[in-house]
Write a structure and sequence with these properties.
mainly alpha, globular
Length: 361
Amino acid sequence: MFMMVWGHMLSWWMISQDSWLTSSLHSIFGDIVGIGFLFISGLSAVIFFRSRLSKAVVSMDYSEDQVRNEYLFRALLILAIAIVYNSIISLGTLDLLNIWKWYIPFTISFSLLMSFPLLSTIKSYRIIIAMGFWLSHYFILALLLPYQGEPNTFGVLYHFLYNSIGLHPILLYFSFFLIGTVIGDIIFNIYLITDQEERRLALKNEFLLPSFIIGPILIIIGVLSLFPSFLTHASFSSTVYSLGVILISTSILLIIEEFELINAERSYRFFFYFSYYSFSIYFAHNVLYFVLFKRTNALTFWIFMPLTFLIIILLLRVIYSTLKDSASIKAQIGKLSVRLAIHVKKRLERIEIKNGDLDKN
């Protein structure tokens, strides 16, 4: 979230004469941010799902059906919010076709729905499916791209899968969501280990060591493959490079967390707000578009950007201390999904009781 806001500031605020800075930084970090968003979403989704299943095993009042319903309601609520957001964009641009547009919330909601049947499969199977989506994306895109905007079957299919290609089309980005679920499963299982030394050893052997081997290999392949195409948005080289960076970054953050290199409670507060209010920030940060539109240059940007983040953090601190989760769309989605799942459970129970009474009669 932090890097997304930073990236949009670059796009919105930089004067055209210094657009080279925006282009350069977006080329280096753009796919890392987009892919990382879906990767972390998949990771957190599977940890949520596994933790709820663990709760269902030991609870008489909580069932696997309720876990499933919570997960699906969460996905559908995000989809509903994404459609509302897309509709606002559509009205603002006077283009009804933008109702179906692959912004991050739209892609996350579809990824949640598409991944649900796969969460019960083994990790290697999910990796194979992710690779299939990843590679097939480029073949399908090459097939459909000539029909962009045409009123025929292929044109409609292109719009369905790739509107707009510069955003986060489902075939490509679902791959990284699915890879995130695999990493989430690994991390979840490691953190079931209560003994600290045993957990740290498992973390080293099962995640950190493989990540520090695979990550650099992916970066080297991405950078050297068809150099310098790793700087081109959504190219195969760029996505390989970005996944390598994400694996290494995740490993470094886990080392900091697990081995207590930094006081987490105090030092992570800055980033805590960007997680707790992630969806709220995603939608609200669009007002920054109007703050300094095309008014900063390559020098003044680095003055206004940290000042803006300081204001955002202070504002989030006030919101957290006064409104807590009332201002968090993510928290409200979680609460509402639980209520809807409970409502479905009670409704089914009433139907079962009613059917039981009819059978007795």
